[in-house]
Amino acid sequence: MVSSHPHPTTPAGRDGLAALLARPSKAVVALDFDGTLAEIVPDPEQARAHPGAVPALAALAPQVASVAVVTGRPAGVAVRYGGFAGVPGLEHLVVLGHYGAERWDAVTGTVKAAAPHPGVASVRAELPGFLDRAGAWPGVWIEEKGRAVAVHTRRAQDPEGAFEALRGPLGDLAVAHGLVLEPGRMVLELRPPGMDKGKALAEYVREVGAGSVLYAGDDLGDLPAFAAVEKLRSDGTPGVLVCSGSMEVPELTERADLSVAGPAGVVEFLTELARAVREG
Questions:
Q1: Alpha-carbon span 9 to 104, nearest angstrom
Q2: How far apart are CA 214 and CA 226, in angstroms?
Q3: What's 5's DSSP letter?
Q4: pLDDT digits over 35-87, tens only?
Q5: What is the mean pLDDT of residues 126-149?
Q6: Mean pLDDT (the chain, rounded)
Q7: Which of the following is catalytic: 15, 32, 132, 219?
Q8: Is 219 a catalytic residue?
Q9: Distance CA 65, CA 81 (A)
Q10: CB 157 within 8 A of CB 139
């Protein structure tokens, strides 16, 4: 077993970890990027994977069926910010970007993508004026995400007040353009419906034919992936849910089998998991 603290605190989590260690060649290890492999930073464009993330993944990946990064970011951006390309040991890494609408495979180094939703372009054009009319919230800013648009409130003088004040109006704007609103840690993302980490993860697990799955995340957008693992467990595929701990998202902590202290804790856990798998 993985010897270092923490261990799964739930029976399902312990069963999932035991199954992964018993047959690692059938295991899928899937992870969110921001807040899980990379620290949350005020400017998302400055986010980079924890220095130990790539070495930990490279040590683990050759021993399991697959390692996948599942993120709301464009796949190519996650690859650049993660430093995942051309790394020995990560030859078969997969990045499922934009909640699965984009896919980067290390084996080819290319991104495959579905057609963009027209509502995103409409919202992109309308959003600056919309925010001006919504009230004075200095520090609120727009992040262009290609297939989605996000409004960040973390830099505002009152981040939570701005978040709550904008949540309803932005939800209405999303619906008006055929999109959905995805709330996160001081961010409100407008994106196409039918895209979520749970769907992306479930489809990939089926593709691989996984015998077990581990998923690690930190935010509300990871709840669908948690639900997907819970559904897989109910259907007989063991799984482990890891929360990259944050007091901002108790909904995730409460459903996790174990919690670790942010990206540094994720890296420590992955490193120890790779060691335990290697030693059998």
A1: 34
A2: 10
A3: S
A4: 999 999 988 899 999 999 999 999 999 999 999 999 999 999 999 999 999 99
A5: 87
A6: 93
A7: 32
A8: no
A9: 24
A10: yes
